[in-house]
């Protein structure tokens, strides 16, 4: 719980009252490697904070292939946020790529706390600005303009994440086949 609060306070300082309210709604949840946390088609009811482990956020294409959109390491917040906001079934799956320990909290109750606690609303704004605007824009540009090789190098530069991913995760994330990934690695001599 303290890791979650510490991460939230990095975005905006929360009052003791707000932190006490958050402590009441959070509960630890553990999932084993390859266990689904959210299945596409289900309603997203929770926000998650990654204490330990690694999550993958993916959807299936029309041929049934897994297409990873994002990975969430320790100290990351994860949810099918669009599904929560629109109150619709999720288009994405969330899977444990390693054994994980999460802090889980109800999206509905959290959104109510955001209305009641001004500092929590300011946290939410700061978080969304940094993670949905500042981080998302370069990702969208990367996907549209950069080659798979350039995107591979970008992912490779994040060694803490890169070393934890299997080759099929990397290929899926880049939108290439495992054979194409092997060619890229051979070209870069990795």
From TrEMBL:
PROSITE patterns: CNMP_BINDING_3. It comes from the Bacteria. Residues 10-131 form the Cyclic nucleotide-binding domain. InterPro entries: cNMP-bd_dom, cNMP-bd_dom_sf, RmlC-like_jellyroll. This is Crp/Fnr family transcriptional regulator.
């Amino acid at each position: 719980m303290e890791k979650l609060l510490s991460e939230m306070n990095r975005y905006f300082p929360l009052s003791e009252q707000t932190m006490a309210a958050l402590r009441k709604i959070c509960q630890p949840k553990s999932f084993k490697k390859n266990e689904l946390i959210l299945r596409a088609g289900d309603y997203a009811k929770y926000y998650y904070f990654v204490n330990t482990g690694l999550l993958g956020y993916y959807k299936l294409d029309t041929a049934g292939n897994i297409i990873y959109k994002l990975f969430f390491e320790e100290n990351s917040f994860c949810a099918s946020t669009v599904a929560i906001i629109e109150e619709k079934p999720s288009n994405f799956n969330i899977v444990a790529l390693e054994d994980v320990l999460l802090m889980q909290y109800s999206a509905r109750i959290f959104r109510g706390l955001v209305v009641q606690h001004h500092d929590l609303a300011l946290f939410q704004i700061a978080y969304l600005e940094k993670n949905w605007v500042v981080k998302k824009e370069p990702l969208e540009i990367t996907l549209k303009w950069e080659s798979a090789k350039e995107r591979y190098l970008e992912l490779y530069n994040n060694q803490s994440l890169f070393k934890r991913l299997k080759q099929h995760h990397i290929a899926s994330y880049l939108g290439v086949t495992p054979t194409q990934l092997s060619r890229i690695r051979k070209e870069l001599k990795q």
